[in-house]
Amino acid sequence: MTQSQRSQLSRIVIIGASLAGATAAIALRDQGYQGELTLIGEESQLPYERPPLSKALLLGERDEPDWVADEATYAEKGISLRLGTMATRIDRDRKVVVASRHEYPYDKLLITTGSSARRLDVHGSELDGLLTLRTLEESLALRERFTDGANVVIVGAGWIGCEAAAAARQRGANVTVVEPRSQPLLLVLGEQIGATFAALHRDHGVDLRLGTGVKGFAGQGTASAVLIKGGHSIPADTILIGVGAAPNIALADAAGLDLADGGITVDATLRSSDPDIYAAGDVAAHDHPKYRHRVRVEHWANAKDQGLHVAGNLLGAEAPYQLRPFFFSDQYDLGCEYRGFADPAKDRLVVRGDLASREFTAFWLRDGGVAAALNVNQWDDGDILQDLVDSGRPVSDKELVSS
Ligand SMILES: Cc1cc2nc3c(=O)[nH]c(=O)nc-3n(C[C@H](O)[C@H](O)[C@H](O)COP(=O)(O)OP(=O)(O)OC[C@H]3O[C@@H](n4cnc5c(N)ncnc54)[C@H](O)[C@@H]3O)c2cc1C
User: Fold this and answer.
1) N or C terminus: which one in the chain shows less Cβ crowding within 10 Å?
2) Is the CB of 114 under 6 A from ligand 1?
3) Is the pTM of this model over 0.85?
4) 378 and 308 assigned to the same domain
5) Per-residue b/e over 183-214, b at no fewer than 16 CB within 10 Å?
6) Are residues 276 and 251 in the same domain?
7) What confidence category does residue 120 fall into, taking pLDDT thresholds of 50, 70 and 90?
8) Per-residue pLDDT tens digits for 219-252
C-alpha cells in the first residue's frame, strides 16, 4: 500500500472483541493508524483472555480474567467499543457491517470471531444443565457448582475437560470424565504421553472412563445422568460438555468468503478471499508459509500474535505470518508447554526424562528434525526447544535425550 492509499484508509472495523480483535485494535493505534476504529463484540465485558477461565478462576483463586487492556486504554487510543453487540451481516458490495440495526462502513475489515463450544447431538441433548466452558459467565457459574462432594461428570478429555477435571477435584468434587478415545489428549499427544495424563488424573482421584462414548442424557427437564454405551448411567449434579470448539464462521459464510478447515480461508498474510477483509485467531485457516499447508490454531499465543501481526498488514505491510504454534496448560501440580505442530500418529516420539515422575520433555520427530516439543514440569530449555522447532534442523536421539 502506498502512502497515499494508506492515508485514504480511514475506517477499520473489527468483528469479535476478544484477544485477537482487541490486540489488533491496540496495535493499529500503536502503529500510527489515525482513522476511525470500531471494535464490535457480542460479549458485554471488556475483551479478556480465556486461559484463566479453566484454571485460576475456576479454582476460585481469583474472580477476574486477564483483561486485554483496561477501559481507559481504549478511550485514550480512540477505539470505539461496541460491546454486547452482535454483528449480523457483512455487506461486501457496500462495505458495511450490520450490527444492532446500525451500519458500520469500513475500508478494511478484520474478522476475529473466534470459536464457540461444541455441543453433542445425542439423545437428551435438548435438556437443560448441559454446561459448556467458553465465557467468563460460564466459568463463574461452573465453579459455584464445583463444591465439596458434588458429582461432576465431564464429557471429553481434551484440554478443557482435563483442566476442568483438575479444578473440580481440587475444589473437592467427585469427578468422572467420559472420553471415547483410548487416552486423554490422544490426538495432540498420542498414546504414550496421553497415558501420563490419564495417570495424573487417576492419581488425583478422577474416575476416568476411557474408550467410553456418550449415548445420551437423562433427567426431568434438567439433565441429571449421563448415559454411556453399554446401557450404564452415571448420575450427575453437574455435567460439563468439553468436546472442543467450533469456529464462528456464519457471518463469513453468509458473506461468501472462502472457507477451509472449518475456518475462514486466509493467505500467508492473513488476508481472506476478499482483499479488504482479513481474519485472525481461532477463526483463521491460515496458509502457513513454514508448514506449506493450511493451519488453524485454537491457542492463546496464536490469537495474540496474529492480532498483533495483522494490524501491520491492515496498514499495508503484506508480511507473512510465520510463527509456529505455542500452547500451555496447568493441571494440578503439572505445568506444560507445547511448541510446534506434530501428528503423534505419524511422527516419532523421543522422551527425555521420566514419564512416571511427570518431569520430562517429549519430542516428535519428522524428517530428522523436531516437529513439536512438550516440556512437562521442566522450564529451563524453552529457548532451546523453540529453536529446535523453528529450525527443524537435523538432530539425533542422543542429542535430544542428553541435552
Ligand atoms: C476455558 C478456556 C481455556 C483456555 N486455555 C488456554 C490455554 O491454557 N492455553 C492456550 O494457548 N489457549 C487456551 N485457550 C484457547 C484461547 O483462549 C483461544 O485460542 C483464544 O481465546 C482465541 O481468541 P480469539 O480472539 O481468536 O477468539 P475468541 O476468544 O473465541 O473470541 C471471539 C469473540 O468474538 C465474539 N463474536 C463471535 N461472533 C460475533 C459476532 N457475529 N459479532 C460480534 N462478536 C462476535 C465472541 O463472542 C468472542 O467474544 C482456552 C480457551 C478456553 C475457552
Assistant:
1) C
2) yes
3) yes
4) no
5) bbbbebbbeebbbbbbebbeebebebbbebeb
6) yes
7) very high
8) 999 999 999 988 899 999 999 999 999 999 999 9
Pocket test for ligand 1, best of 133, 300, 326, 329 (most atoms within 8 A of CB): 300
C-alpha 179 – ligand 1 centre gap (Å): 23
**Rounded distance from Cα 49 to ligand 1 centre (Å):** 8
Residue 217 belongs to a domain: yes
Report the chain's C-alpha Rg in angstroms: 22
Question: What is the DSSP code string of 231-252?
Answer: TEEEE-SEEEE---EEE--HHH
Taking CA 200 as the corner, what is the angle to CA 356 and CA 301, rounded to the nearest 5 degrees? 100
134 C-beta closer than 6 A to ligand 1: yes
Top mutation candidate among 15, 18, 283, 329 for ligand 1, by most atoms within 8 Å of CB? 18
CA dist., res. 69 & res. 99, Å (int):
23
**Percent over 90 (pLDDT), the chain:** 95
